Model the fold of this input.
Amino acid sequence: MNNTPTNNKFVLDWIEEMAAMTCPDQIVWIDGTNEQAEALRAEACATGEMIKLNQEKLPNCYLHRTAVNDVARVEGRTYICTPTKEEAGNINNWMDPAEMYAKLKKLYTGSMKGRTMYVIPYSMGVVGSDFAKYGIELTDSIYVVLNMLIMTRVGNNVLEALGDSADYIKGLHARADIDEENRYIVHFPQDNTIMSVNSGYGGNVLLGKKCFALRIASYLGRKEGWMAEHMLILGVKYPSGEKKYVTAAFPSACGKTNLAMLIPPKFLSEQGYEVECVGDDIAWLRVGEDGRLWAVNPENGFFGVAPGTNEKSNPNALHTCLRDTIFTNVVHNTADNTVWWEGLDNNPPQPGNAIDWKGNPWDCTKYDKKDKSTCGAHPNSRFTALAANCPCISPEFNSLKGVPVSAIVFGGRRAKTAPLVYQSYGWQHGSFVGSIMASETTAAAAGAVGVVRRDPMAMRPFVGYNMGDYWQHWLNMGHKIPNPPMIFHVNWFRTDDEGHFIWPGFGDNMRVLLWILARCEGKVDAVETAIGYVPKAEDIMIEGLEDITIDTIRELLTVDTQSWLEDVANIKEFYAQVGDHVPATMYEELAALEARLKA
Ligand code: GTP
Ligand code: SPV
Ligand code: MN
Done:
């Protein structure tokens, strides 16, 4: 290779090896400049890979449609290839590394013939900061390049920071035939390597995101004494100007982006309360010199769920994606060359002016909420937008040391069991609360929607090693943080007998955040129950809420012993499935919970 922007032998040798296997016509280094990105956008529009949208209404915005069989992460085809199956554990798919390399080699061989291999040097975290980790993704997809330019920090400065070190994560992505039967998303944690083939969708192919920043990073974090978590990071600004930071782990499509950018209810905004967004999906957490836990968001943008995003639910997200954004699998409004999705507004583009996510004419009058096949936008359609464009982005977004965490919040979609909010007894019990998290499944992953499944710490699909060892790592971290955050659990999704959400959610979740932070400061009392501390109903502010009385709050806070005992039975099954590596401490916590429920 001539004229390479680095002389790093580890990088050059690896690229040469991958190119020898995949046989691209040419290799192009991505330098992070806008000129290069512009040329790639033009090329993608010329080939039909992207559609340039109305540049007055949506400057620098584009639309992309994936293959119909390629619309979400595929957990069944995601592998952790550690030398032994035990290291990957029972929750991950595993295959012997040698066997997997051999299988992949067949799929990659010649896969880039007639195509270009792009070399993307990127950083997770601010380049040069203590938190930053570097990666290089090789891909034959312009869509991936343009998404990575938004989602990560890309450019020659990454290569400069890497110097001649071998300490980077290798990622190889080839679209191949987008063949579902041969789709693989594979991690080799011991080799710092990620290999993805036969997909062109989000989390399967933007290798800095779930593959690196969670699966590989969680493995590194355990080895190096830090944590990589599926968490948003937000700052609450008080009228006094003081700021407190909260991280929250909810499973995919359960409200992280929404909570991270929330706008407080009017009566609180008027008093001067504000929320600032540091991150909406991933947090890397380290113990600071001051004995507190500090968080950074390693990403540079948001890959957010489009449906349901509107001026009322999440105005900040909506404003973030009005420019410099790539939309994936939403409706194309051909009347004015803009985009639309279910839940944006009540004015869907009319028949004749609407193309659905599959690229077919779409008739909004045939839309039936209960029949997903009538959707114009895919339920997991997304926007890729720059964090810097978010109206409420935190001034600490680019901070080198991150932000100090006061509270960690777990949560999921539970129609019945979990109350609106409860507080754990401390780090150990809080880790247990994380381990027993459960949620009804969503469209963010392929498979059935609405089935309750256990999703510990919202990390079930993202832990790069044995789940039991991951829980032990949580417990161990507790001993290393002299001043640990308090740990809570929330549920915005409790339903009434007709199946409607009882809690208004979205901006009104601020009311729960304020209770959480008041608990951290010891400023408010609570009621002790079998599962933890629950608020006194009068301590959740209901000012300005229509249809919500103190009795509604009481209902939202009830802990139903019978359904919790059923949950305990289900947790036992899940722990047995996780297997031998479940820490004894977790079983002790489970026994203690059961005893309290039966008392
Ligand atoms: P990933 O990007 O997949 O990790 O998802 P996420 O956790 O960031 O979820 P997001 O904020 O995009 O929300 C997903 C869905 O949950 C959207 O349809 C939202 O409208 C809905 N949602 C978010 N917050 C709330 C809430 O407080 N109440 C209710 N009822 N729905 C919510
Ligand atoms: C998630 O599924 O949690 C996402 C979207 O954030 S993806 O990047 O596809 O994983
Ligand atoms: Mn996510």
Summary: The chain has a mean pLDDT of 97.
